[in-house]
Amino acid sequence: MLMTRMLVPTLREVPKEAEVISHQLMLRAGMIRKLAAGVYTFLPLGYRVLRKVEQIIREEMNRAGAQEVFMPALLPAELWKETGRWGVYGKELFRIKDRHDREFCLGPTHEEIITDLVRNSINSYKQLPVNLYQIQNKFRDEIRPRFGVMRSREFGMKDAYSFHATEESLDQEYQNMYQAYCRIFDRLGLEYKVVEADSGAIGGGYSQEFMVIADTGEEPVYFCEGCDYCASRDAAGVAEYVVSETQTKSDGKPEKVKTPDQKTIEEVAQFLKVKPAQMIKTLIYETESGPVAALVRGDHELNEAKLKKVLAVEDLKLADEKVIKKVTGAPLGFAGPVKLKNVKIVADHAVLLIENGVTGANEQDFHLTGVVYGRDYKADVVADLRYALEHDVCPRCKNSKLKVKRGIEVGHIFKLGTKYSKKMKANFIDENNQEKPFIMGCYGVGVGRTAAAAIEQKNDKDGIIWPISIAPYQVAVIPVNFDEKDQREVAEKIYKELSVEGVEVVLDDRPGRVGMKLKDMDLIGFPIKIIIGPKGLKEGKVELKLRSTGEMKLVDKGEVLQEVLGILG
Ligand code: ATP
Ligand code: MG
User: Fold this and answer.
1) How far apart are CA 166 and CA 527, in angstroms?
2) pLDDT value of residue 411
3) Which residue among 33, 388, 473, 510 is least packed, with the fewest CB closer than 10 Å?
4) Atom of ligand 1 nearest to the CA of 109
5) 327-336 pLDDT, tens per residue?
6) Over pLDDT 90: what percentage of the chain?
């Protein structure tokens, strides 16, 4: 391709609206342009990258035995109503009506659609398992579209759905997809971690997220330095504490102290001159099976996802003043576990270790000090309830410490079980002639987000450093002065040689200064530059420069093709 024929509107200035580096560089390198909030056009260079990411995904999905389909983006509401997601999905769903007033939405994901397809086309276990995928644009009216194509409202996704007769078959396919995803992200040259994600309360299956490690990632990734444990913030476990006998058996009794208007942990801690770690934070929740008092140490944060799981409830919300008053007899800010009746008490492990704890007295303007677990109160359930922290002991190997880095979620694999098939009465006949709901899995990768994540991970002050596998072109041939006949002829010859061999190459045939051209090439991130200048040519040599390392070597002009093919492997 000739540079003068390409639409590559590069920018010198950093666009103000772009907060993260990938967004800035995609705009500056002329790869994308914004049409509306969270809606982007991919220009030729950007689209080439997108197509390459898609192709790697496609090859690995095909290799894993999945079959490509293509479903519509315009989806009738009826199927969404069958699963109840027409309501649940809320404002993120783009809803439209046709001329007959029939309701539709633009697909944000396709579980309902694929389940409908499969229930109408598969009826026997003999036709299972099956894994169907598509690469298609999704629509989600995100509250905060941002970071360019990383969190947009229309974006490319590969979504796959597998259907099984047995749990074992699902487990196998889930592993198969796990491997396929590893191959995809390995081929993309990304540094990633696979985290255990919180899988929700009742009926939620197991799921893992593929996170590309980058400082600008939206999600913290908790991982062990010693073993392969890795989890999201919601899912990260806390190793059980060892409770010794002495801590639960101390003499004396709690003392009631006046704490007028001191309600929060910080206020009370300051007022009584104790550390927040000495306080027993008592949170009253409402659930479908009644109120609950959840206890965590004052300096810890309660993880509602864990609490939900421990209680096996689906609805969980902090109680309002009225309920708190009813449960504790006191207004908000004075709840504590001592003599707390008619409510289930769930305590985090760490609470049991607090010696001489401080907590609410269940009476306005009073707290208790010297509170000890076992002697003064007991919990109905003791469990892991808090968010893990950096430097906590790893819950798996119980040896090394947890570290936290930030990550960008690029892929998600999920064991759905029968969540959709039951609601949609999607059944098959099993070996014993019994009707059973399909057991399902689903597997997604964001295409544009993955491309952006690659930039986020590999860039420098000059621009993008593409992994060769997804660079828009592999080589740029740059004559220092295109108007000089010698240079032009050598450049054109090398350009042709490479093109004929199938190398993706751009010839920078623009007039103008070489400095400006090189700046553009580095900004766009061509992995290999061939620079043809008068000095080298005198000796029949050209410069070959690698974008990733900055490494430069002089190459005989007749040996460029061989050198390049060697690098591309
Ligand atoms: P997030 O938590 O980031 O909103 P999600 O859990 O909603 O992601 P999934 O429904 O699992 O995402 O979608 C599968 C993949 O699609 C994600 O792993 C991500 O790569 C991509 N993706 C999701 N939302 C967006 C978006 N708004 N813009 C670009 N890619 C997205
Ligand atoms: Mg989302």
Assistant:
1) 47
2) 97
3) 33
4) 10
5) 999 999 999 9
6) 91
Scanning 188-260, the segments in alpha helix (DSSP H) are 245-248
pLDDT digits (tens, 9 = 90+) for 263-292: 899 999 999 999 999 999 999 999 999 999
What's the pTM value of the predicted model, to 2 decimals?
Answer: 0.87
Residue that has been written with the tokens 């990258």 in this structure: 49
Q: What does the pLDDT average to over 340-346?
A: 94
Ligand 2 centroid–CA 153 distance in Å is: 10
Would 393 be classed as within a structural domain? no
Helix pair 447-457, 21-28: axis angle to 10 deg: 100
Give the per-residue pLDDT at 516. Answer: 92
Residue nearest atom 28 in ligand 1 by C-alpha distance: 151
Task: Say yes or no to pLDDT of 201 above 50.
Answer: no
Q: Do the domain assignments include residue 468?
A: no
Considering only CA atoms, which residue is closest to atom 31 of ligand 1? 446
| Residue nearest atom 16 in ligand 1 by C-alpha distance | 446
Q: What is the per-residue pLDDT across 431-487, written as a single tens digit (0 to 9) for each?
A: 999 999 999 999 999 999 999 999 999 999 999 999 999 999 999 999 999 999 999
55 lies in the same domain as 187: yes
In sequence order, what DSSP letters do the residues of 160-176 get, joined into one string? Answer: EEEEESSHHHHHHHHHH
Residue 396 belongs to some domain of the structure: no
Convert 532-557 to b/e letters by CB count within 10 Å (16 or more is b): bbeebbeeebbbbbebeeeeeeebeb
Strand partners, 302: 386
Cα(202) to centroid(ligand 1), Å: 23
* Ligand 1, atom 13: closest residue by C-alpha: 444
CATH code, domain carrying 563: 3.40.50.800
Whether residue 395 is contained in a domain is answered as: no
pLDDT at 205: 75
- Is 117 found in the same domain as 13? yes
Beta carbons of 560 and 542 less than 8 angstroms apart: yes
| CA nearest ligand 1 atom 18, residue | 411
Tell me the residue range of the domain where 489 lies: 473-568
Ligand 1 pocket test, candidate residues 26, 412, 413, 445, most atoms within 8 A of CB = 412
Same domain, 17 and 164: yes
Each residue's pLDDT tens digit, 232-270: 998 899 988 766 554 545 567 899 999 999 989 999 999
Within 8 A by CB and 6+ apart from 305, the residues are 198, 200, 234, 235
- CB-neighbour burial class of residue 353 (10 A; exposed 0-12, middle 13-18, buried 19+): middle
| Mode of pairing for the β-strands spanning 505-507 and 475-479 | parallel
Residues 115 and 187 in one domain: yes
